[in-house]
Amino acid sequence: MISKVKNAMSNLVGGMMPHGHHHHNHHSAGGQNSGQESLPHRFPYGRPDFLDLTPELLQYSTEHASRPVVTLKRGTRLSWGAGYAEAINAGKSMLNEDQASCEKLFVRKPSGKHRNSTLVDDNGDTTGIPLQFWGVFDGHAGSGAAIMASKLLHRIIRDGLGEICHLLENPNSAPPICLAKNGSPFQAEAKKGATPESAEDPDAVCDASVRFYMEKVVSLESLVMGVIETAFKQMDDLIEKEKTSYAISGGCCALAAIYLMGKLYVANAGDSRAIIIRNNEVIPMTNEFTPESERQRLQYLGFLRPELLGNEFTHIEFPRRIQHSELGKKMLYRDHTMTGWAYKTIVEDDLKFPLIYGEGKKARVMATIGVTRGLGDHDLKVYNSNIYIKPFLSCVPEVSLNFTTCQLRLRSHLTVSARVASVS
Amino acid sequence: MISKVKNAMSNLVGGMMPHGHHHHNHHSAGGQNSGQESLPHRFPYGRPDFLDLTPELLQYSTEHASRPVVTLKRGTRLSWGAGYAEAINAGKSMLNEDQASCEKLFVRKPSGKHRNSTLVDDNGDTTGIPLQFWGVFDGHAGSGAAIMASKLLHRIIRDGLGEICHLLENPNSAPPICLAKNGSPFQAEAKKGATPESAEDPDAVCDASVRFYMEKVVSLESLVMGVIETAFKQMDDLIEKEKTSYAISGGCCALAAIYLMGKLYVANAGDSRAIIIRNNEVIPMTNEFTPESERQRLQYLGFLRPELLGNEFTHIEFPRRIQHSELGKKMLYRDHTMTGWAYKTIVEDDLKFPLIYGEGKKARVMATIGVTRGLGDHDLKVYNSNIYIKPFLSCVPEVSLNFTTCQLRLRSHLTVSARVASVS
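^ inputs. structure came back:
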């Protein structure tokens, strides 16, 4: 069910760059991975495990001249009969920087041995709640982050779900607002607001009626969404942490589809896409996060924290660069509050480069990156500067929740792809 | 076409409060309008001009015991045959704090005499581009801001459109990116990017190819949207400025529908609603801006600028207040990046009151206000504190653009209302 078809570039590029000339990077990634040359790789380079490539086939898959389409071996079956195809995106990088994973896991209560160990796989133990995972990781400026995420993100999600396993096992009772200190095993819920306040809280009596009577009901599904959102953040933090010990190059968009207990969750941080095809109708399951779609969020950050723009960029958007000779004239602009355009008198500050610049696939954040969510990129700086891009990027996915198993399995096809050229 | 039906409260409230007990204010508005008692009113209190109430009818309309439904006089016709009805919202305030306007104006180039004078009405001069305006201003904590906006917002929009009048008169040519210093009359567009850079800009030559070839095409409609967005900001700034000389109490949600050159623009800052009824189908023209719908925007501001929370509030959302005795336990939470919920260990900081608290119509920003966009409220503070609410409120509307004149006039009805109970 997964089909991954890469853009076939219409023209070959003569000289190959070893790194850093991915479409996301306008300039080469200055400062990215600096000082990491001597560190070992966190994971060796490879193609997705489920392709099961021999060293010869792995070498063959990197041939820019032939650019073979790599698919599953005849007879290989991924879960749910998922399909897969990829081709190196000639001209952008020496190696294919994108990764994918397709895993069946089991959610269990964390045991002392396994707790906080995301490296543990299931080792054939099929007890617990089954979890089906598909992931696509569209790498840029190196493949390190994409490889690491393809190896670990599903395990982080599984372990996060393990922490609420006792709640998943009681799907008909609403999750408690408050848990005991150890979190698990589940203890009695904290007393509801209408009960008398504890004597420890001197404020409690006087305005208990205002403050304590309300208690929101939180659904089990929104807890699963919270686990997925948190897992992306944990994955991103882990990349940052392990960069001190390993060479983990670049960054990646991350798209994960998670099937759990009859429901499909699709989490997207970046500009990959997941669609459902149902009765020949295409149902988008994701929104894309780009400098254009997230313009106002980024401008708002630049407005509130101008120091992040390093005195080189302006958070105001203009339809083109302003020339010095145009000072005092009036030019169209948009700030973080606007959807329409208005004229403003050009002042010296407006000559700075716009934080968001360019249109469509050429739109960039600080002239550097064309996508605004994903994992990694902790060292990514604006070319020839000390301005970090990372504060403007978000590692948190948007999670959508739509289909029940019956609908999905019997009448629909789920397609997940990075940079879709065509899907079938 | 405008129908305005207020919630009929199902039970009368015994004691009336003179001010400040609007549904938007949880506590009474501490600090609001402080020191303004001795200032004259900017505009006298009244009901919308088009109701043409006599002093006796005005007095009658304020009777809480009878709460008459006030409608247009028999034989009165608003533009487009618009309708109107209102009733005082018994128990919330002494006077009806909501206002409305329905105006036909004409957009002309600004002349020296009229420039920057938003108080000028058309005085029967019907030259220029016709503009039909409907506005609803749902006031709270006083009627001053709502009255002022109902008198002036349409004129600010008209004058803003006057500044681009020369562009509106040439609807088939794309608006120029850059105008001469005086802005008007229209001069030749700045040279396109492909021309050689001026010698004044030493940076220009080296990366001209990167920076200067792109120029966005901006539509005339997005200029009109920009004028409307800017006008709301100007209206809000004017209220703030004139508060130094006049008593202008409270704040208001603002919803404006503007018909110009065959297109309808609906601008909404608050929780009022505009709908189109077409073939008995209801088409929403607005989204509502409430603590729940704007939760993540507000939390993000509180996260980036914690000083605005005055050490009293936390930007993290919890499903209920936390008791001191629960320190160290785990509680569900959401931060500004999350849609789902997750558990966190409760620390001292989490005992602060949540920035966003409550559900549905009871949701409040800093326990004070139930709406997150609008005009006015510059002095509004958290009860018994020096924490201002205004930084969390936005005066900028969301502008939608949908229908052509033919569709709208022949087959549809536009209904604009504050706190809709029922519409017909």
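The longest strand of chain A covers residues 129-140. The two ends of chain A are 10 Å apart (CA to CA).
thumbs up if we can close this ticket
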